[in-house]
Design brief:
heterotetramer, A: alpha/beta, 7-stranded antiparallel beta sheet, 6-stranded mixed beta sheet, 5 helices, B: 314 residues, alpha/beta, TIM Barrel, 4-stranded antiparallel beta sheet, binds flavin-adenine dinucleotide, binds flavin mononucleotide, binds FE2/S2 (inorganic) cluster
């Protein structure tokens, strides 16, 4: 399903300009909790025509302590053409994100994007449901903004280890989404409870599409529920990336297209794929 | 106005900057105007459809990268029907990179891609010769000669032989390629390397090992480009670790008549165009009227004897 | 307390960290306590007095360096009278690096330095064999065999053969050295490279070319250390680009039983001692009781087939 | 002459601690003129037992724009154990010094030193003369401090392109040196004029030793004058360095020791050498 949206490459024309490498300026870079930070950039209009689920490829700074080389892919957490603003929610894990964490107001940051194929919201999908955990929230958050713009109902099921690392609840609520939180600490985040919550949503008011991100467990759960009720779904996937543009073919994953296993580039044919074709890994 | 044109045998390029195979595709047209490049070099293709190597296919090493993409290929037919027409919309020479695991197969695909719209064929002989001991053709002069002779008789198009930095016989392989009819040498491909994830203790690449590219490769590939330019009469195209205009000037001074930019495009997708502008300014400020005045201008007189000791790092 | 000792054949080292030849001397005792090192490895010496290469002898490349020091040497007599006694004041095994331009000369100096106070001899076979075509002994299995056999009969001390990354036949050379009686392999020396000053258009090194060392070399030398550890039964000592404890752990996982630190000491003279402390903490926090539990623990099962394609970077 | 001062290496002892790799803190880093900057560091006592002519090996910072790898040798311009202070006067030329120039108050800087053999001031040398140009001033400046401490008379001949780039005049004067300035702009810096000035100094009040730094022209001039009047002299030399400690043997230069050409390490047997043994290059 996602393939139909693929950008067609330029045809003997000058750069067709859907993607730009631009210099942005850091507005703020603040801790959200012990592990995550929110980076807000002042970005030119050229890169702000984004879709939920797309990502940027970020040139992390080089410091005395950290010397990342390749760019780092980051989902768009927030974008606003009016405010000239671009946001990323990221988890500090390794060299690149540690370097990102050192940025302060006024610093420059080179970003490339928007990249990839985002989530679909078909005209007749009124009741959207998303299931997010951890950094998946970053990827799924813009769906709330888009749902509000298109006047759709959105239920966001947010899962986390404990209340402390639950993020973006207010963000979702402010955008009119209904939020259901589950945590490991409360013992509410297990698969069976999630299944029950989703089944109840389907029973109560119907669900037209389900979105998720990242984990194998959630993928399988939504594949099962989707197949049972014939509800389409989409998943945003991750893979190591070098170019982010479709050139190097390093970011492939396997997909099951009607029984045939194909390899698709996460950066180009994705990162969002149909949930029925995605394969557990 | 400086003259940026450069000649690779019978082919004249508007400027000496082109992409390296496997680090470029139609997709880059979203970011930059492909008209501006000296040539278009496509990802290596093989005759049959192939899947490529297991993931992860890339990893980062200090200031550079490793890759083990392999050669996933949709096959030559798909390439002729889709890729060649795309590039033919541009008035820029198209260089098609090919590979195969045996000399005959190699010659076959060489013939298949010798079609209108293709300006030159880059032969990636850094792939394993499975009929022999699995070592790449470009590892030895003898296997280089064997495959290049078959390739030569398979096509009238200019043949660019792409050498491997994994050999200890750079000059001998270069001479063998020239002798067997190569029209130019591309120097060089990636260097066999490895990285291990200390947490999982697994190799960082799904394929165990992969090729080093990026800045770390530059002093090695530059040395090879110099060795080749000194040894052969055909043009040498420098490739390996280029990311600044100084890097390009270094390759040109060493004797390269053109350069290929690979990994740097992953870091800055616009870099080839940026470098072209910088090269033009550099020549202007240095009062160098023509690119060709720079090519091979290395002042190595003092050190001429040392060439003998080329394999003698202490 | 973790057990940091490691065995290189008959020799037991208190810890696996030692300096690389040519990047260490008595002078370092001004900065750190030489007792703390696993072994002391001296700069390569030759039998006769030699002047070394013209200056400049070093230059910087992106994140690494090139050198063409050559082997300036005060001769073996001076070494025996001055250097050996200095190191014998320490209770640390002394490893003496030697070289020569012919197999016979090599054997002669090997015999000369086989004196009390020397724990092992590192044979730097990456130097040109002037009786043949000037290529280094370590470039080919045949020349490696020839020189190693002569060396073996010249001394009863442990012989460590230091391999070159310039060869395309790493495994064959490693096997040849083992077969001819080497007690350990040091993997690897520097990689032949070049840099040009674009302003003067002269090579940055007086000797035209030189050897790459430092972080850029690591993925290459690590690959070689892995290949060697997989192929031979004798211990492998990893060397090339080590500057962090992660680098050391990577080499150990790949199969090295000890490591040599070279260029990093130029950047941080205390680094070997710092790394030793960090290695100890690493093992503690990972609950690894003994260094030997780490050695060769690479999980390469999934990728075992790829070893066949070792020379196949795309 | 300089060889006699050579540190003897440790003998089976723990680090004998004449040289230290230490972390310092930047106090200030200010432009002196268009080309030169003065860097003042807060440094531990362990590295402040310096001699004029010695140097430090500096680990320049890594920035987004500049990634120097090797250390950079810099003469000690000023040192004060009382103030806990170390100073360098440097010319911004390439990657390393450009990176140095980005340091600001509070930044950390790793330095290794003090290194090498400095200038000699023998007990019976009362009238000292130094001849400095450009960055040579940085190397020769501490002689003024030492001359004052030892109560010797110092004449400093400072040469430069023009008045604007003449540096450290006040520094020399404050330390009681007599300063003679010559510039290319005024046409006073040529060799013949310099020779005349020095000959006058010798005639007027005698000169016991002459010090200089760097240039071939000055080396030859002082060799000639020294030979004629039998006045000893010392010169500080430069060479590319990797280790700075005497280990790598990359920094050698040729010297003429009574007709025999020997190679000595600038970092270890130097950087200060007897003027009679130094060879033009
Ligand atoms: C399309 C996409 C969107 C993403 N969006 C976000 C986001 O919004 N917030 C967030 O925190 N993280 C996100 N990630 C993951 C993020 O890219 C990695 O956490 C980050 O690259 C780690 O870099 P590092 O240098 O800190 O870690 P290291 O582990 O040091 O990275 C080493 C290398 O592995 C790569 N890598 C490591 N983890 C991943 C991963 N999960 N996916 C792909 N490559 C990886 C790095 O890019 C780098 O090349 C996304 C990944 C993809 C593919
Ligand atoms: C003992 C000694 C004392 C010095 N004292 C001073 C001083 O007080 N003030 C000052 O401004 N400069 C001094 N220099 C020169 C200073 O080391 C160089 O200007 C500096 O290394 C240039 O580094 P860069 O990266 O800016 O330039 P680049 O040209 O980019 O340097 C490239 C490489 O060449 C080396 N290099 C360049 N010029 C020299 C040089 N003249 N001598 C040795 N190596 C060089 C660098 O260290 C580096 O490794 C001294 C040099 C020596 C040997
Ligand atoms: C991801 C990737 C894929 C590559 N694929 C090919 C290929 O298919 N054929 C080929 O000849 N070289 C291939 N190369 C090698 C490059 O063309 C080039 O020779 C090498 O990367 C060195 O240049 P660089 O340092 O500028 O990247 C590839 C390199 C990379 C990084
Ligand atoms: C300045 C310098 C001098 C060297 N001299 C020798 C030598 O005399 N003998 C030798 O076997 N290796 C010599 N080497 C190579 C090192 O021992 C080591 O193999 C190489 O530098 C790779 O390790 P590194 O990256 O940690 O420096 C030298 C290296 C450098 C940088
Ligand atoms: S990251 Fe290069 S193709 Fe996807
Ligand atoms: S710089 Fe290493 S010996 Fe002088």
């Amino acid at each position: 399903m996602s393939l139909i949206q693929r950008h067609s490459a330029g045809e003997g024309s000058p750069a067709n300009g859907t993607t730009h490498e631009v210099e942005t300026t850091v507005k703020s870079n603040t801790p959200v909790n012990g592990e995550y930070r929110l980076l807000t950039l002042d970005a030119p209009q050229s890169v702000l025509d984004c879709k939920p689920g797309q990502f940027f490829h970020i040139l992390c700074p080089v410091t005395m302590a950290e010397q990342p080389y390749l760019r780092r892919p980051m989902s768009i957490y927030g974008y606003s053409a009016e405010k000239g603003e671009l946001q990323f929610l990221y988890k500090v894990t390794g060299e690149g994100t540690r370097a990102l964490a050192t940025l302060t107001k006024g610093d420059k940051l080179n970003v490339l994007g928007p990249l990839g194929v985002g989530f679909t919201i078909q005209d007749d999908w009124q009741n959207l449901l998303l299931l997010a955990r951890g950094v998946g929230l970053a990827t799924l958050a813009p769906l709330a903004q888009e749902a509000q713009r298109l006047n759709r109902k959105l239920v966001a099921i947010c899962s986390a280890r404990n209340e402390d690392v639950l993020m973006s609840i207010d963000h979702f609520k402010a955008l009119g989404a209904e939020v259901i939180t589950v945590t490991d600490a409360q013992g509410t985040s297990d698969l069976e409870n999630l299944r029950e919550i989703i089944e109840n949503q389907i029973a109560d008011h119907g669900v037209d599409v389900m979105y998720t991100c990242g984990s194998n467990r959630m993928l399988k759960l939504l594949q099962e529920i989707g197949a049972k009720h014939d509800i389409p779904g989409e998943i945003a996937l991750e893979q190591q990336m070098a170019c982010g543009l479709g050139m190097c073919q390093c970011c492939v994953r396997s997909f099951n297209r009607n029984g045939t296993i194909t390899q698709e580039r996460v950066c180009r044919e994705g990162p969002v794929f149909g949930i029925e074709e995605a394969m557990a890994w | 106005m400086v003259d940026l044109t450069t000649k690779i045998g019978s082919l004249t390029l508007a400027n000496p900057i082109m992409p390296a195979s496997g680090t470029f595709s139609e997709d880059l047209s979203e970011v930059l105007d492909l008209h501006q490049l000296g040539a278009h070099v496509t990802k290596t293709i093989t005759a049959e459809k192939r899947g490529g190597n297991p993931t992860p296919r890339v990893c980062e090493v200090r200031g550079s990268m490793l890759n083990s993409i392999g050669i996933p290929s949709k096959g030559v037919q798909h390439f002729i029907e889709n890729t060649i027409p795309f590039y033919n919309a541009y008035d820029v020479p198209l260089v098609v990179s090919i590979s195969a695991n045996s000399a005959d197969e190699f010659a076959r695909i060489c013939e298949q891609v010798s079609v209108p719209g293709v300006a030159a064929i880059e032969v990636n002989i850094s792939c394993p010769n499975i009929e022999e001991d699995g070592k790449a053709f470009a590892m030895r002069p003898s296997t280089t000669t064997a495959v290049m002779e078959k390739l030569r008789s398979a096509s009238d198009l200019p043949l660019w032989a792409k050498l491997s930095p994994n050999t200890g016989e750079t000059i001998e392989v270069a001479l063998a390629a020239e002798e067997a009819g190569a029209d130019a040498l591309v120097v060089a491909n990636t260097l066999l390397s490895m990285a291990i994830d200390i947490h999982t203790r697994k190799p960082k690449l799904g394929n165990l090992m992969g090729g080093l590219s990026g800045p770390s490769l530059k002093p090695i590939a530059l040395r090879m480009a110099y060795q080749c330019a000194k040894s052969v009469q055909i043009p040498v195209i420098g490739c390996g670790g280029i990311s600044t205009v100084e890097d390009i000037v270094e390759y040109l001074i060493a004797g390269a008549t053109a350069v290929q930019v690979g990994t740097a495009t992953f870091i800055n997708p616009n870099i080839m165009v940026t470098l072209l502008g910088q090269l033009e300014s550099y020549l202007e400020t240095q009062n160098i009227a023509s690119l060709s005045d720079l090519v091979g201008s290395v002042r190595d007189e003092d050190a001429a004897d040392s060439v003998v000791f080329m394999e003698t790092a202490p």
